């Protein structure tokens, strides 16, 4: 049974892909720093961040799926930036194909998790137990006494 988000295969795959993008982008032109380089680094890392958030929200299936949807969207954005990197010959066709394939598998894993969210969000033992509710005592029963004069 998976207990932590770092144990998820999709998280580990996305982490490796983000690391590969970071390494590849170190040699990109300086004028791309705030456009392409920062954008692709942020979106690739955001895939992992959203997977981690989804894992912590698995008690709530709709929130879980929402965060996985965000991770999927960030993976799609990363692939769009990869298209630009390849279009400008910043990465080789081989590196592009490898990274694009990695993100295709990552997105496939995310979609499978979304489609079977009940397997990830249950059983009830994973869900937080209801907090006990004890109504506060009525203020009339225990009035606040004004401070005494010195």
How does this structure look, described?
With 150 residues, the protein is mainly α. It has a single domain (5-119), classed as de novo design (two linked rop proteins) (Up-down Bundle), CATH 1.20.1440. It contains five helices and no strands. Helix 1 packs antiparallel against helix 2 (33-56), helix 1 (9-25) runs antiparallel to helix 4 and helix 3 (61-87) runs antiparallel to helix 4 (93-115). The longest helix is centred in the middle third of the chain and has 27 residues, at 61-87. The radius of gyration is 24 Å and the shape is elongated. Mean pLDDT is 88; it is low at 124-128.
The CATH first-level class comes to Mainly Alpha
CATH topology: de novo design (two linked rop proteins)
Spans where pLDDT lies below 50 across 5 or more residues: 124-128
* Class from helix and strand fractions: mainly alpha
The gross shape turns out to be elongated
Concise description?
With 150 residues, this protein is mainly alpha-helical.
What are the salient characteristics of this protein?
single chain; mainly alpha; de novo design (two linked rop proteins); 150 residues
């Amino acid at each position: 049974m998976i207990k932590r988000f770092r144990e998820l295969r999709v998280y580990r795959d996305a982490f490796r892909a983000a690391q590969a993008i970071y390494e590849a982008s170190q040699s990109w032109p300086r004028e791309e720093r705030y456009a392409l380089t920062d954008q692709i680094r942020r979106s690739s890392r955001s895939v992992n961040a959203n997977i981690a958030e989804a894992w912590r929200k698995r008690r709530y299936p709709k929130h879980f799926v929402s965060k996985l949807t965000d991770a999927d969207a960030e993976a799609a954005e990363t692939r769009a930036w990869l298209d630009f990197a390849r279009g400008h010959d910043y990465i080789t066709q081989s590196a592009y194909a490898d990274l694009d394939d990695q993100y295709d598998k990552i997105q496939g894993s995310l979609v499978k998790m979304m489609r079977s969210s009940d397997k990830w969000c249950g059983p009830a033992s994973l869900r937080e137990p209801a907090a006990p509710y004890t109504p506060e005592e009525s203020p009339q029963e225990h009035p606040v006494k004004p401070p005494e004069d010195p």
